[in-house]
Specification:
mainly alpha; 8 helices; flat
């Protein structure tokens, strides 16, 4: 009853732009409570708020807003909501792992959570660029930053895969998939949509991160091979 009343208050007393921010804030608070008290009920209610918040966020920041500068909006609600969507998606996967509520399908939920987090960060970045530089320059600058963010996230996943034994397979798979998605975005979208300077920045940044990641993996595998040989 309290959760329903809270949902009614969050939906009824907020505007469309602010509504996802409030819903994500409630979801994060419930996830924190679930983690602290080991409460599966608080986790389920938090997940419900997160799903409703995600659907509301997509309604104010649809995919066409990321593909067409004419639909892009520099909105504070989208910027904050996108960041909170990423935080909520991460908290959803993290608390689910900590509470050990399910075994089967955990990797699938983790991948879906990662995709939602990536969508939220991309929407927030493009919206921030649009709010600063307008629907032309700001839109392209936002996509440049988003592409770099994708590669940084891929690099972080690959680095995590080297350190974690339990989640090495999933982290490696996710990191390589995100790397492929970043390169595909770079060539299929950025190469057409971005202007000269932003295109150069995106290519240089992605190239440097790929070089660093490749060098790091080569060093780790060389060290492991040397250890096995000795």
């Amino acid at each position: 009853i309290g959760a329903v009343a809270m949902l009614q208050a969050a939906v009824g007393s907020t505007t469309v732009d602010v509504r996802p921010v409030v819903l994500f804030a409630v979801a994060l608070a419930l996830f924190a409570a679930a983690h602290r008290t080991r409460s599966s009920l608080a986790y389920v209610i938090g997940s419900a708020f997160g799903v409703i918040g995600a659907l509301t966020f997509v309604s104010i920041s649809p995919p066409e807003a990321l593909l067409d500068s004419d639909h892009a909006a520099g909105n504070a609600g989208i910027i904050i909501g996108g960041i909170l969507l990423a935080a909520t998606a991460f908290a959803f996967a993290y608390v689910l792992t900590e509470l050990k509520l399910i075994d089967d399908g955990l990797q699938t939920l983790a991948i879906v959570s990662g995709m939602l987090a990536l969508y939220g960060l991309t929407s927030a970045t493009v919206s921030l660029g649009t709010s600063i530089g307008g629907n032309t320059t700001g839109f392209t600058a936002g996509h440049t930053a988003a592409t770099i963010e994708w590669m940084i996230a891929a690099f972080a996943l690959l680095a995590f895969g080297l350190r974690s034994i339990a989640h090495a397979h999933l982290a490696l798979l996710a990191g390589l998939s995100l790397t492929a998605a970043s390169i595909a975005k770079l060539f299929l979208f950025d190469l057409v949509a971005l202007d000269g300077l932003f295109r150069v920045i995106a290519f240089i940044a992605v190239g440097l991160l790929l070089l660093i990641a490749g060098t790091r993996y080569a060093k780790v595998f060389a060290d492991r091979e040397g250890a096995v040989t000795s």
